[in-house]
């Protein structure tokens, strides 16, 4: 008796879901479309590279402050990137600028300019693929006019 009630319940639910019209997915319209950065190849490459470098950036920030500080990839900017060897060799040096904070973005502590490189593992190093070459901290106040702009990708 109980299984008949269960089967009837499932049949009713299935029939109700069939009544819901299927609407093709439409992109969400955003009133701030002028602030959204389109996904060009350059944007995708930059965001991918920042994502791959983020653990090393985070470790450099933690080493500087002695404790965890947050930063946002959506604000990170490449200041410089260059090839260290002849074309065809893949050793690079990149300088990234990020803004750090604690909690819910309050208050900003500073702009961190971090230079990283992917030199081959050297004698006496930990064998990490990315090395921090330089770290420069600039204090920020919450009203600092030179804060990094937000980039929106979605």
Which tags fit this structure?
single chain; 154 residues; alpha+beta; 2 helices; elongated
Give structural notes.
Residues 1-25 form the signal peptide. Keywords: Signal. InterPro entries: DUF3888 (IPR024984). This is DUF3888 domain-containing protein. There is one protein chain. The chain is of the alpha+beta class and 154 residues long. The chain has a domain at 40-139. Helix content is 28%, strand content 27%. The chain contains 2 helices and 5 strands, in the order ααβββββ. The longest helix is centred in the middle third of the chain and has 25 residues, at 41-65. The N and C termini lie far apart (52 Å).
Short structural summary:
By secondary structure, this protein is an alpha+beta fold. It contains two helices and five strands; from the N terminus they run ααβββββ. A hairpin with a 3-residue loop joins β3 (92-102) and β4 (106-117).
């Amino acid at each position: 008796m109980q299984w008949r009630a269960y089967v009837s319940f499932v049949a009713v639910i299935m029939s109700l879901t069939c009544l819901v019209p299927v609407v093709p997915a439409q992109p969400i319209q955003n009133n701030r479309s002028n602030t959204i950065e389109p996904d060009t190849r350059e944007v995708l490459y930059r965001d991918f590279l920042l994502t791959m470098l983020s653990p090393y950036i985070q470790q450099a920030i933690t080493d500087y402050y002695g404790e965890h500080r947050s930063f946002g990839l959506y604000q990170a900017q490449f200041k410089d990137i260059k090839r260290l060897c002849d074309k065809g060799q893949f050793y690079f040096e990149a300088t990234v600028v990020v803004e750090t904070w604690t909690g819910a973005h309050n208050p900003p502590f500073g702009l961190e300019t971090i230079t990283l490189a992917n030199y081959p593992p050297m004698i006496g190093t930990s064998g990490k693929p990315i090395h921090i070459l330089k770290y420069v901290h600039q204090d920020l106040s919450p009203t600092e006019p030179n804060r990094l702009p937000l980039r929106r990708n979605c």
